[in-house]
Amino acid sequence: MEPCLRILDSRGNRIPLSAAVDPPFEGAATGRRMNTWGTSTVGPNTSLYSSLNRLRSRSRELIRNNPLVQGGVDSYVANAISAGIFPRWQIEDSVIKKDIQDLWEEFVPKSDYYGVCSFYGLQSLVFNGLIDAGEILSRKVPRSMTEGLPVPLQIQLIEADHLDETYSTLAPNGNEIRMGIELDSGNCRAAYWLWSEHPGESFLTSRNINRRISIPAREIDHVYRPVRAGQMRGRPWLASIIVKLHEYDIYDDAELVRKKGAAMFGGFIEEDGVQIDPANYFGKKKEPDSDNRKILALEPGTFPILPQGKKVHFSEPADVGASYEMWTRQQLRQIATGMGITYEQLTGDLTGVNYSSIRAGLLEFRRRVQQLQLEILIFQFCQPIAEAFLDAAVLSGVLRIRDYYRNRRKYLKIQWRPDGWPWVDPVKDQLAEQMAVRNGFKSRAQVVAERGGDIETVDREIAEDNARADRFGLVYDSDPRNMTKSGVMQKIEEAVLTGSE
After folding, report:
1. What is the pTM of this model?
2. Which of its termini does the chain have fewer beta carbons within 10 Å around, N or C?
3. Mind listing the pLDDT tens digit for each residue in 281-299?
4. Boundaries of every domain in the chain
């Protein structure tokens, strides 16, 4: 008798062999439908080790040459940054607060190491770098007070290409270097090993020959979006749609060329008894191209002479088909989803859009952008620079704050305010905000902050407006001291109400 294998559960009941061997999840099955699905268990950094450079190159090529992608990137940056993400120091001492805020306004146009952008322009460059390369480096460069800067500090943005992802070795001090980042014994970032010049530039001479230099980690802010725990480098945000974008671009270009070629022919003439060189059917000679290949250029309205028959056939080029527009829209929706923006932002196509649908799409998109603003732009880039700015200002004596080093955290409380979102429907949205304030669900300060403003500035400007109006004896509907909500003067309405009583 042959031995029989039986599998029992904890109560001694027999379990079918198939149930014990086959995976309980369909997604883990290896049957006929799934056996061709290749998978990988590589770690978050190994997956980028051999792919990052090519992903960056292809992402940038798509942005350079595909107007659809370039427009989508521009829309993304415009929504995430707009006029800038502004700091508002939360300090009780109004004098110190004003001094810091005024000095920051002087620092903004002088903050760029290369003198090309303001600080808010640097924010746009950072977000561009996140999209095309997945990461960007920001270096805090100390400067001298003799250079005429408001604060002896400037910001140098460095593309991720300087940080070689294939450079993994031991540093001279014994620390481990992984993907260009030096880690100390506690596995914390100690330094960044960067190429002194961009490896893709072609202006290298004996004077500025490219070499690796070690920059202390305290000088570098590495800005990227981690999607896996332990991930040390960022991946381009277009990575998941590179192939689809490339294939769609080829298809769309081929369709354009096909339609262009078909439109070149006004018709065909068939002629009997005439010997025509097949090379000259189109009535012109072949001309060599740049590769010395003899080709025939077409022009609109061409009537080629064909050697058989004698009939005129007018060109009737085939249409793209009724499903072309629907199919194209579906592909572009997938591309927009992969980029993290809406289809309307990618294409500018507002066909079939109404107030409810566009508002629902924008609310979802704005929630995503707010997450990126808070968790990446503000936390990794803006806040560290503001802290370095304040340190440099106090250390250089530009700002005199006696208890700064004793109570440093108190002076680093900053509320960052992105530029406000434009209302989809100003009347409806403003009425909703007004009701929220009247019902106590929101404060005026919160409403103003969400619009990118500062409540103290708004109140001061309103007080100045009212004082100026009173000085000239002017009364406006916008002044609630004198006018009711319906536009009637307060005193007249009070008199009417008193008389009716």
Report:
1. 0.81
2. N
3. 555 555 665 656 555 555 6
4. 51-241, 373-494
